[in-house]
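Example (one chain per record):
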Amino acid sequence: MANIKTILSTVKLFRLPAKKITAAILIVFAFQLIQSLKSWSQTTYLPHYTSKNGLASNNCYYILQDDKGFIWIATDNGLSRFDGTNFQNFTIEDGLPDTQILQMTEDKQGRIWFFALNGQLSYLKEGKFYNQDNDNLLKKLNSNTVIVSFLQDKQGRIWLGTNSNLIICWDGKSVKKYVSPHEKDKFINAFLHEDEQGNIYAYSDLSVQQFNGKTFVISPSKVQPLSYMTADNTNRKSMFYLDQTGLKEFSKGTINHLISIPQNLIKNMSGYFYYDQSAKEVWLANANGAFALNKSGKTVQYLQDISVNQAIKDKNQNMWFATNQGIYMLPNANNRLSIIDAESGLSSNVIKSITKDAKNRLWLGTDDAVIDILSIQNYQVEEVGLDDFKKYKTIKQINYDSKNQSIYFASDYGMGVFKNIYKSTDQVSYLKETNNSMFVIKHFSLSDNNNHLALALSSGVVFLSDRINKFEFNSLKYREKEDFFKDRSYHVFYDQPGNLWFSNINGLSQFSNSRLIKHFENSPLLTKRINDIQQLPDGTLILATDGYGLIFYKNNKIARQITQSDGLTNNICTKIFIKNNEIWVLTNKGVNKITNYPNDPSVANFDYGKDLLSDDINNLFIDDSTAYFATNKGLILFKYNNQNISKNLPKVYVTSIIRDKERLPVDQDNFVFETGNNTILFTFSAVDFTTSDITYRYRLNENANWVETRTRRLDFSSLQSGDYVFEVSAKSQNGNWGPSAKITFTIKKHFWQSLWFLSILILLVAYIFYKVAVYITRKQKDKEQQQLLLKNKVLMLEQQALQAMMNPHFVFNVMNSIQHYINTQNTASANKVLTGFARLIRKNLEICTKSYISLEEELEYLNLYLKLEKNRFGDKLKYIFNVDEEIDEEETFIPSMLLQPYVENAIWHGIMPKETGGEIQINIRLQDEFYLNIEIIDDGIGIENSLRNKKESHISKGMQLTRERLNLLGQIGAKPIHLSVRQNSTNGTTVSISIPLK
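Predicted structure:
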């Protein structure tokens, strides 16, 4: 063996005699044999977070987990809040009174109190920091002394113990300060406790005192904690504390001894302690690490030679340690990773390959020409050195042959086999090429059905038909496409029936029953580089590709492809391991496990411990309970079960709301903002200490589509007025979405968007529109009126001209009457007719120039006309005027020359055709307060009969002009003029005119 040669060469340096040389060889060999069997223990991996990860400072004093699950870290450079992925830091600029925060606690109201080195208090409420500058209570509580203990009793009073002779109490109304008057009994570093009866005790370095309602008095208590750091109040109103003998509990007036602690640990206590009630173990923090002790006396040390200030357990059963080198986390028992490396007994930290034999031993191929055999039961390590260090320096593949109880291994430039491994490791054979030609091995595969061995070489694929009896090959005698396939190859694999599958530069091929099947011709995906091939019990081949994820190949078809979009950490897959129908996959970014294939494949990634299980994993082996990973940092192992994969849906919290640089309370569900710029910043976080692979989604309206993001900060600027619901949820890895956090807010509308303003605006616009419409209508109407007036004027002029001319027959008849009276020398009658005719002409000339005349003038004119007609027709014509007495004839105006045409028409076409003559009634009355009604009634033949008797249709020119004029006057005026002409039953005619009163 190689190490024997080394021993011999070493012995030669001493130039001893032969006998002494022999003795030296035996001694050295025995020493080497003893050293080759080393028993070590595994080291538990603790994730470590420092300022490089975002922590405010590496010098950490205290850790607190709040009610929401966030981890708070008090440092000498401010505060850090950790959600499992990111640190958010807070300093004086955020409201802290000092950068050095020594201790923290959360009260019943959810306020987180911070105790600073400068003695000033502050607390966080609804996302906002309060200090003595913005809170009167904190200003009153300020004492310029360091706060060492905090107590909120069942009455709600807050008690503060300090490092000086001072105890402070705030009862909700006033602040009271208590000072011990006794020199030997001062309140130095007082720890405050409330028992089940509500009694308040102060345990200080010099005394134990009890509050009697007014002041503190000496109490003969046997409870004597070592310091304020070694006492802790419980929810049951009991107290755990450390004294000189160990851990004790003070409950209901009785002291119970729980765990004995060695004196060396008691004396070296320099930090806080933590008692895990569920595990019944106490954790001690000192300058040499953290120690866990149980009742049986078993002691486990963590973080050796690291100064630990505090240890606590979170809600997920993870332990956290505050140290002067950052913070550490010890995961819960179900999620712990262990490391076995060179310090634990392995020959090297770099493990390249791994397999397991039937005796529960792991065979580990290293990069040091050594194969380590690790017994899982006792972690005993046996080192097996290989002969040719250069040739077998890196053992990149190692397989167990259960049928022949052998271990096959390979490096880049050679291959060997350990036979009869349960007897010894001395029977080593090496693969030979008959012509001593050099060959480069990429991969090998052992057939379970026979003794075949296939090799993927840089020059092609070859296989040996009998690996047991003839562990050699002759490259010159191989026959292409029979026992040799040229072209650079990457991987070989024997399936369950014994068929050989291999991948080369062309893609996937199969050699079965002496026939080569080129599967790469079936699909472009099968032409890609394949790094590993495994087979499911149902015969499905799983292909690990270089950039295209996993390909599931069955019955010469691609059944499925799983990629990064389905949950893989990366599409470059390097190794596959199948155990209990679960598919473990190595990618260049971590570890994945696929379950429920083919029904409902689910991909999980082991993001926890990703700085170990990341891009430097070389190989893996999975047994019934433990997963082993060969890495460049040693052998990583953990117990895997369903608890490794977080089933809890991550709950997201809104951690801050900032509007226009103003920080708003995060616990308030609804906000109303005034209109303005409205730039709103939301920060949020989901607490998950098992993975950093957190995806968020958000929306601003419950009916809107979700938007996915990786950021924990969203800035919405220039939001329009309206109602919004900011909703955000989270999911880890490829799990389901957790419950949403909702913030409802309303941005008020601008005053011009308000209902009252819009109503006023609508009314104003309507009014303006109305005024414009009225103006346009009026202008149009004025224009029409001007046209009507012009037309009316033309009609009036026509009627005036007509009236001025008078009826020629009427004038001729009047003149004949005058001549008759003159010839008969009846001068009186002639003068009377001549005078009436003259007055009629003069009156006609007066009123024909007026649009409106008084009713008195119209009646006077009409009376003159009827007298002349009466003089002519005698008793054949009768007329009557009936005027309502309520009518003021002088102040009532009607259109001029209105009645005469209708009266004349009644005489000539109604009465004169009758042999017996007839009568005309002119009735004038008030129709109502707005209209004057005039009726001209005759008892002639009737208008319809008159029109029927005439051979030609005749329309009185005067009546036509009057009708048109009345129509125009009605359109011009505000109220219309109504005119109707109708026949009275069998004879007679009634003309009715309704005129608006002016």
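Caption: The radius of gyration is 58 Å.
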